[in-house]
Amino acid sequence: MRESKYIEEIPLNHRKDYGQFFTPPLVARLMATWVMKDDPKTILDPAFGLGVFYDEVKNLNPNNQIMFTGYEIDPHILDYLDHNIIDPGLRIINSDYLEVETGRFDSIICNPPYMRFQKFLKRHDILPRIEEKIGKKLVGYSNISSVFLVKSLKELKTGGNLAYIMPFEFFNAGYGKEIKKCLLENHLLKQIIIFSNEKEIFPDATTTVCVLLCKNDGKDEAIKITAIKENEEIDKISDASNFYQKEIFSSDLPYNKKWTPIILSLFSEEKFPNDFCKFSLYGTFTRGIATGANDFFALTKSKIEKWKLDENNICKCITKSYQIRKAVFTEYDFDKLYSTDKPVYCLDVKDHKKQEIQQYINEGEKRGYHERYLTKTRNTWYKIESRKPAPILFGVFNRGRLKVIRNFTTAINFTCFHSFYPNIFGQQLVNKLFVYLLSDIGQRIIKTNKRSYGDELDKFEPGDLNESLCPNQKQFEEIDNEDAEKVIELAKIDEEKAIKISNDLINEIIDTSEIVLPDRYPIAILSGS
Ligand SMILES: C[S@@+](CC[C@H](N)C(=O)[O-])C[C@H]1O[C@@H](n2cnc3c(N)ncnc32)[C@H](O)[C@@H]1O
Question: What is the pTM of this model?
Answer without folding.
Answer: 0.59
